[in-house]
Amino acid sequence: MSGPRVREAVEPAEREACFAVRREVFVGEQGVAPEIEYDTLDALAVHVLASDDEGTPLGTGRLLHGPGTEAKTGGDPGVGSLGRLAVRARARGLGVGAALVRGIEEAARGRGLGAVDLHAQTHALGFYERLGYTAYGPEFPDAGIPHRAMRKKL
Q: Between 57 and which of 17, 18, 32, 46 could a Cys-Cys bridge form, CB atoms 3.0 to 4.6 Å apart?
């Protein structure tokens, strides 16, 4: 693989590929209930998809911003919320996650946002710190998994 191809998922088949990766990782591997994993914000989100040279989906993530997403973005119109970052097991360790984060940050910059927030599973704090994110606030549970809030100024 020459490196993942990351793009905004605008076509229905691309969005379904994003949901399939999330289903595999969050519902299948981590045991998150489907009714928690999928929410009304999916309709408002910018979905990003990573694929290999053959077009096989490897990972996904989403960016929330604007009206209707205030609960995730703290009501600040200049801040986006990165979430639902998932990489298929066979693609981990290949730079897919970092490429997805960069793609989501690019989408945020393109929409005039000055910062990106996220809720990281605590085991992934180091990954996000290496990409320039800083943790803040206390640890909290989300879907029964410990998380911390993080932010990066763009």
A: 17
